[in-house]
From TrEMBL:
InterPro entries assigned to the protein according to its UniProt record, in alphabetical order: CbiD, CbiD_sf
Organism: Anabaenopsis elenkinii CCIBt3563
Native organism taxonomy: Bacteria, Bacillati, Cyanobacteriota, Cyanophyceae, Nostocales
Coiled-coil spans in chain: none
Molecular function as annotated in GO: methyltransferase activity
Family stated for the protein in its record: Belongs to the CbiD family.
Protein name: Cobalt-precorrin-5B C(1)-methyltransferase
Pathway in which this enzyme or protein is active: Cofactor biosynthesis; adenosylcobalamin biosynthesis; cob(II)yrinate a,c-diamide from sirohydrochlorin (anaerobic route): step 6/10
Top-tier EC class: transferase
Claim: Phosphoprotein is one of the keywords in the record: no
Catalytic activity of the protein: Co-precorrin-5B + S-adenosyl-L-methionine = Co-precorrin-6A + S-adenosyl-L-homocysteine
Keywords: Cobalamin biosynthesis, Methyltransferase, S-adenosyl-L-methionine, Transferase
């Protein structure tokens, strides 16, 4: 049995609570209680160190414990510096210090997303009197070095890690036990809705929510898209919107239904093949094929469109989206006992700036129903 831990925002919040406790009481604590909000439960988080830096400022340190999840942040220290503040504005101002990533598509703002903000705001505000204000600076000392081992740059986050997540619970996403947990969630939501949205990870869940899709219709799949599609069909789900980052979801266009890069990649081959199918010349196909990442290939096609006034991005990705739908439908059909009534699939792909890149024909129809 795998052990669940907590997501990075929970530890940042715990450190901030401990630092504020020092400012309030002049005492170090060895643990604090954090209201996770999602789920609605309390978590007891160990605090490694607390120190007063001045009468108005304190530092607390905790360490990430994501459970059995294969998470590179395991045991990494999280610092929170909390300082009393005077003046107008919000009671709690949250800042990202060293090691917290910056968002290229949001004027270099810290990569501290909605759940982390809500977690910090709600837990800290209940500790403040009506006229008190604080500034919280989150620091990840090893964030910059750890970030080079992540896909953060693919989503426009540089110089550190993101405080990303929609829940306080960190699940082991790469284990068979997690597939079981995903299926349980799928079964619950399939009993309520005929149309569901499959998101591989937190970026998809976050963007889908921003676009107005009901979170209760979203199902996280991690890399288990194939088994989850089959399970949805067995449960009688009528329609599935595959909503994901183009560099991951395009693997389905090549018939790859377990999308972890250790098992199969094929992205450059898929891109190059679809470039050839829509008539791109051989020299440009070669450049796409030699691109180090899917995002780099997309940039190349965008630059080509800008220079020549062509429409290659739309043509290539329209073809890929259609192939995703077709291959997903065939995959379900090959495992289905429902015959012609098998689950219908549509797709929506977004880029590293979290902008919608393309919607398949079925994807457009499903988005209109969902939003």
């Amino acid at each position: 049995m795998s052990v669940s831990g907590y997501t990075l925002p929970v530890f940042a919040c715990a450190a901030a609570i401990a630092a504020l406790h020092w400012l309030r009481h002049g005492q170090a604590v060895t643990s604090v209680s954090v209201n996770l909000i999602s789920p609605a439960e309390m978590a007891e988080i160990s605090i490694e160190q607390v120190a007063g830096l001045s009468d108005n400022m304190a530092l607390a340190i905790t360490r990430s414990q994501p459970g059995d999840n294969l998470d590179l942040t395991k045991n990494t220290p999280i610092w929170a510096v909390v300082q009393w503040r005077r003046g107008d504005g919000e009671p709690v101002i949250i800042q990202g210090g060293e090691g917290v990533g910056k968002q290229l598509n949001a004027d270099y703002q810290p990569a501290i997303y909605a759940y982390a903000h809500r977690l910090l705001q709600e837990n800290l505000q209940r500790m403040l009197a009506a006229d008190e204000k604080i500034t919280v600076n989150i620091i990840l000392p090893f964030g910059r070095s750890l970030a080079v081992r992540t896909s953060n740059p693919a989503f426009g986050v540089v110089e550190g890690l993101s405080l990303l997540g929609t829940s306080g619970i960190s699940q082991p996403l790469s284990t068979p036990e997690q597939l079981t947990a995903f299926r349980i969630e799928l079964e619950h939501k399939a009993s309520q809705f005929e149309t569901l949205v499959f998101c591989i990870g937190e970026n998809g869940l976050d963007l889908a929510r921003q676009l107005g899709i009901n979170p209760e219709q979203m199902v996280k799949t991690a890399n288990w898209l194939g088994p989850m599609l089959v399970a949805a069909d067995v449960l009688g789900v009528k329609e599935i919107l595959l909503f994901g980052y183009h560099g991951k979801l395009m693997k389905l266009a090549g018939g790859i239904f377990h999308t972890h890069h250790h098992l199969a990649d094929g992205r450059r081959e898929i891109l190059a093949a679809h470039c050839a199918l829509v008539g791109l010349n051989s020299q440009d196909i070669q450049s796409v094929f030699e691109s180090p990442t899917a995002e780099a290939a997309l940039k190349y096609l965008k630059a080509l469109d800008t220079v020549t006034g062509s429409d290659w991005v739309n043509q290539v990705y329209t073809a890929i989206a259609q192939a995703i739908d077709t291959r997903s439908q065939a995959y379900i059909q090959s495992h289905s006992t429902r015959g012609a009534a098998a689950t219908l699939c549509g797709s929506v792909l977004f880029d590293r700036d979290r902008q919608i890149l393309i919607k398949s024909k079925i994807g457009c129809i499903l988005m209109e129903k969902l939003c």
